[in-house]
Amino acid sequence: MIKVENLTKTFGPKVAVNDVSFTVQRGEVLGFLGPNGAGKSTTMRMVTGFLPPTAGRVTIGTHDMLEDPVPAKRLIGYLPESAPCYSDMTVHGFLSFAAEIRGLRGNAIKTAVHRAVEMCFLENVLHQSVDTLSKGYRHRTCFAQSIIHDPEILVMDEPTDGLDPNQKHEIRQLIKRMGEKKAIIFSTHILEEVEAACSRAIIIDRGTVVANGTPQELKRKAPNAGAILLRVNGVAAEVVTGKLRAVDGAERVQLVKDENGTVTARVFPKSSANGEFSKAVGAAAQGWRVEELHIEEGKLDEYFRSITASDTAKK
Amino acid sequence: MSNSLGNITTIAKRELSAYFASPVAYVFIVIFLLLTGFFTFMVGGFFERNEANLVSFFLWHPWLYLFLVPAVGMRVWSEERRQGTIELLMTMPLTPWQAIMGKFLASWAFLALALALTFPVVVTVKYLGNPDLGVVAGGYIGSFLLAGAYLAITCLTSALTRNQVIAFIISVVVCLFLILAGWPPVTNILTKVLPDNRWIVELVSAFSVMTHFEDFQRGVVDSRHLLFFLSVIGFSLFSTSVALRSLRS
Ligand SMILES: Nc1ncnc2c1ncn2[C@@H]1O[C@H](COP(=O)(O)OP(=O)(O)OP(=O)(O)O)[C@@H](O)[C@H]1O
Ligand SMILES: [Mg+2]
Question: Number of folded domains in chain B?
Answer without folding.
Answer: 1
